[in-house]
Specification:
The protein contains 21 helices and 27 strands. Strand 21 and strand 22 form a beta hairpin. The protein starts with 5 loop residues before the first helix and ends with a strand.
């Protein structure tokens, strides 16, 4: 009979609940779920189901039992006869590996806090299929990594579910420092389950980004929401574990986490058990086409220690067949200095050449009736088999020939329905074939002394490599192209590739792509960006006038040194709101707006400094209120509002309301044709290149005649916001054009012609 310290259980439940509530609120406020969305099932049913259990008014033990009864983290059944057969099967498997549970301490058994309906007692031990599976995984890890030899091993697990593997790992290695990264809902259950099992353990909950300096060794368990994973940057871990969660993520999110493991933290060993080669119906399971790269995303810096598709411990014939087909990968990280691209290319080509001589490939397109190769029942799915050889060849250097062979081999393995990874390989093949034909093929003569490359340019570069730097740009080789990335952008992840953001950088002249280094350097030369900010005039009314890219800045001397190459939008907005910084598209323009707002000279319509009776370009609070309401009318109900024109009104709005930049994605103007690519970081488009999704336009024009001409160039169904002259204070210039001097709210007009 389980005796529970009710007070302790309630305290742990309250602490897990408080951390969950705080973290979930942070996710909601920051929009993290939208930045890294969950996949088809997790983003809908699974999270809702977990949240429902979390919010139920039941005890800690009941919550754990409820989550165990789901199939998210457990394969369970209430049929005791099936349960006994499953437990016996796992015990027999252990015996086949010369392992007996009698060799272990009696603490090696299922948790008393687990689902009681999914456990049985054998030889004085509480056993369940879930627990025995984690025992096998821990033994697999120790077999290849000898982690038990460490006095205080550090383990990082991404997606720990309810904490089953984490608990078993600690039973085998009591001194382990175990860190878990997970979404708030599952982190609630793993933290509660592990603390119930190890109430004496020292734990830490990370709830912000300020915990990077704390030592992991001080804690037995560290629980980190996915949003704050960056606090681990640069940390060292003996082992990284992931079982059955990377395969349940969207491809962009998989790239994010594989980049995190391979480039952000220092990991000695990788242990993964994730889906690979599961058949799908492309129409019915269409979402899987964007969730199919978890087992093909390993870079060259791994030495593969174990690779088994459908490992023997995953073949239990009772109930376990409802789960996915998984690939076990255990790999050791090697130093970057030990990676030789030339040798990798040679080895990749050599592996592909050997595979191409096998019967299945030579006779793949023939009638093989009455022959073994027509329908071979048993394929070698280990490191010795053809499947691994092709997987490894592509990992080292993807080329058209080895990807083609992989696709052919997958057709031999499958029955009617395609494998989900086949669509990944088909996309990769199309990319390789559309690139310049400088890749090796299986018929290429390989110079083994030169590792197969000789003086050829590398045919395909799966990882970004810094080649050189010119004029404030980094030149990077990636895949089959060269990239010029402005250093002002900071780190850019080309592997993950946020297409929307990269497109914006390309439009503003901060990012270029070409098929050769000469061409990408020429694009940098043509863009006109100086290598660093240039001081134009020093001490102008207490401001330095500085040019950076296409924008001129008036920076208050009180700010001290300001590095415009690293200045982010939020800091720039803060400086502008404090009137310590002004921006414009010319030196005279930035001086002019500085003079108007600081009231050093009259505004553009002849109003004396200090006049606040109307809209008068004097930097007054009244002007700010007018502009705020005007911009609200522009943005409200609009999917993509833009500005039209880069004159004094545009400059004035961006200086009075710097935060409006976050809502305006581009500026329409013919200035683009004169060499201007952006203003204050916002790309400038010629009118004939206006994107089709623009639905609202603000006319940045104070001249009535010019505003009418601008309006006439726009589609009739667009929402157009424009200033409208009124009788009060209206003046007429020498050419008869009306200039807007003084207006109020009734003077604003929204043009919605023909709507």
């Amino acid at each position: 009979m389980l005796t529970v310290n009710v007070d302790l259980a309630n305290r742990l439940l309250n602490e897990s609940w408080n951390h969950y509530r705080k973290t979930r609120q942070i996710y909601a406020e920051t929009g993290y779920d939208k930045e890294y969305p969950l996949n088809f099932f997790w983003g809908t049913d699974n999270v809702r189901q977990l949240a429902d259990i979390i919010n139920r008014p039941v005890s800690a033990l009941d919550k754990i039992a409820l989550v165990h009864r789901t199939f998210m983290f457990s394969v369970n059944t209430d049929d005791q006869s099936v349960l006994q057969r499953m437990v016996d099967w796992y015990i027999d498997y252990l015996h086949s590996c010369d392992i007996s549970l009698d060799d272990f301490d009696l603490s090696i058994q299922e948790s008393p806090f687990s689902n009681p309906n999914n456990s049985i007692s054998r030889w004085g031990r509480l056993l369940s299929p879930d627990f025995l599976r984690t025992v096998i995984l821990c033994l697999e890890i120790d077999k290849h990594t000898r982690v038990g030899m460490h006095s205080r091993p550090r383990v990082l697990e991404l997606g720990a579910g309810y904490g089953g593997l984490s608990r078993t790992f600690r039973l085998f290695s009591p001194n382990v420092s175990y860190t878990i990264i997970d979404i708030p809902e599952t982190l609630f259950f793993s933290s509660l389950f592990l603390r119930l099992n190890f109430p004496e353990a020292k734990v830490r909950f990370v709830t912000d980004s300020s915990s990077a300096s704390e030592s992991l060794d001080e804690y037995d368990f560290t629980f980190i929401p996915t949003k704050f994973a960056e606090v681990l940057t640069g940390k060292n871990f003996e082992i990284f574990c992931n079982t059955a969660s990377l395969g349940e993520m969207q491809n962009a999110v998989i790239r994010h986490w594989m980049n995190f493991v391979q480039n952000k933290i220092n990991v000695r060993y990788f242990f993964g058990l994730n889906r690979f080669l599961n058949t799908i119906d492309p129409e019915e399971h269409h979402w899987r086409l964007d969730e199919n790269i978890c087992s093909v995303s390993f870079d060259r810096r791994w030495r593969i220690l174990e690779w088994r598709l459908e490992p023997p411990f995953s073949r239990c014939p009772y109930l376990e067949t409802i789960v996915t087909r998984n690939l076990e990968v255990i790999a050791e990280r090697i130093p970057a200095s030990a990676v030789n691209p030339d040798y990798d290319l040679f080895l990749s080509a050599q592996i592909a050449s050997h595979v191409s001589s096998q019967d299945w490939y030579i006779h793949a397109d023939k009638d093989n009736s009455m022959r073994l190769r027509d329908n071979m029942f048993s394929h070698d799915l280990t490191r010795k088999g053809t499947l691994f050889k092709l997987w490894e060849s592509i990992r080292l250097y993807p080329r058209a020939d080895n990807v083609t062979m992989m696709l052919k081999y997958l057709k031999i393995l499958t029955k009617d329905k395609p494998f989900e990874e086949a669509f990944y390989y088909e996309t990769l093949l199309e990319e390789l074939r559309s690139a310049p034909t400088d890749h090796l093929t299986s018929t290429t003569t390989v110079d083994q002394g030169a590792y197969g490359r000789g003086d050829q340019r590398l045919p395909y570069e799966p990882e970004p490599i810094l080649v050189s730097s010119i004029k404030g740009f980094n030149i990077v080789r990636f895949k089959r192209n060269f990239y010029a990335v402005s250093q002002c952008l900071g780190p850019i992840d080309l592997v993950i590739g946020d297409d929307r953001l990269l497109s914006k950088h390309q439009e503003s002249g901060r990012y270029f792509i070409a098929e050769s280094i000469e061409k990408v350097k020429a694009l940098v030369d043509d863009c006109g960006y100086p290598g660093s900010p240039q001081l134009v005039e020093e001490g102008y009314h207490g401001y330095n006038i500085v040019k950076h890219r296409y924008t001129f800045y008036a920076l208050s001397l009180a700010l001290g040194h300001v590095d415009l190459t690293t200045l982010d939008d939020s800091t720039l907005c803060e400086y502008q709101e404090r009137r310590k910084c002004f921006v414009a598209m010319s030196a005279e323009g930035v001086k002019q707006v500085l003079n108007w707002i600081e009231r050093l000279e009259p505004g553009p319509w002849g109003l004396p400094p200090g006049t606040v009776s109307g809209f008068c370009f004097d930097g007054s609070e009244k002007d700010r209120i007018y502009l705020s309401k005007l911009m609200a009318r522009l943005i409200q109900g609009s999917r993509r509002p833009v500005f039209f024109g880069t004159g004094c009104l545009c400059t004035y709005v961006f200086n009075m309301l710097p935060q409006i930049r976050s809502s305006i994605s581009l500026i329409l103007d013919d200035q683009r044709a004169q060499g201007f690519r952006d203003f204050a970081g916002i790309p400038i488009y010629p009118l004939d290149s206006m994107p089709s999704d623009v639905d609202a336009v603000f006319l940045c024009q104070t001249d009535e005649k010019a505003a009418a001409e601008m309006r006439g160039k726009l589609a009739a169904d667009l929402k157009v916001i424009a200033l409208e002259p009124i009788d009060v204070g209206m003046s007429v210039s020498g050419d008869g054009a009306t200039q807007y001097r003084d207006f109020n709210l009734v003077g604003w007009r929204i043009e919605e012609e023909n709507r």
